[in-house]
Amino acid sequence: MRGADAALGATGLGVLLLLCEAVPRLGLVDEDYFPPTVRIAGALGRELSDSAFWSALGDTLTGWALGLAIAVGAGVVAGVVIAVVPYLREATASTIEFLRPIPSVALIPLAVLLYGTELRSVLLLVVYASFWQVLIQVLYGVRDVDPVAEETARSYGLGTWARIRHVLWPTALPYVMTGVRLAAAVALILAVTAELVIGAPGLGARIAVAQTSQAVPEMYALIVVTGVLGLLINVGARTVERRALAWHQSVRAEVAV
């Protein structure tokens, strides 16, 4: 089944590449604004042979990885503490609902004011956007804990840490992994966006330079790189999720199918 899905995915990608080649060749779109696939592939080859490209890729991955790690750690800890401490969830609910909808890009002026075009500006935006993805999922996961299992653990004399480890965490882990997968994608989006708008070192800044210098094929090649990077991150996150939840019914059913 997976082999068939992979073949269909490859076929769809091939059709897309052919369309991208044919549309400008047929004059439906000006080649100056949308180069054919062959020209984009050539520009991609030149980028791959440029050491500055790999440096920019490393900067983007650094901002993504650090921001995601901070967001996941803070989101899990904050979510568990809010869920375990009595009345804390009700006390923080309005604050969370107020802060969560604020778009991360609205914080760009603040990030520039505080840190300029340094890595810390990228981290501020990445962490803020990714943190909520994890926190909300942790809160939902804790809410899904079976009250009977919780009371049984209490009746057997399990302490707070033991209940978190043996009751709360196994129930919340599927939600946590979903939050991590969503946060990984959001972190990449914000990392590239911050570089593009702020000018922090990375693929986003390189895309902006290509756009302002009218290097259109190179610009599209770099955009393709960010798309491939997002695909690889999503595949990696799903792989980690399946392995971490190999015991869970949803993953076992997926494997069985």
TrEMBL record:
Keyword terms of this UniProt record: Cell membrane, Membrane, Transmembrane, Transmembrane helix, Transport
Domain ABC transmembrane type-1 per the UniProt entry, residue ranges: 57-241
Segments passing through the bilayer: 64-86, 98-116, 122-142, 172-199, 219-237
Tagged with keyword Calcium: no
Topology of the protein relative to the lipid bilayer: Multi-pass membrane protein
Alphabetized CDD domains for the sequence: TM_PBP2
Compartment(s) of residence: Cell membrane
Family of this protein: Belongs to the binding-protein-dependent transport system permease family.
PANTHER family per record: ALKANE SULFONATE ABC TRANSPORTER-RELATED, MEMBRANE SUBUNIT, TAURINE TRANSPORT SYSTEM PERMEASE PROTEIN TAUC
Annotated protein name in UniProt: ABC transporter permease subunit
Organism: Streptomyces dubilierae
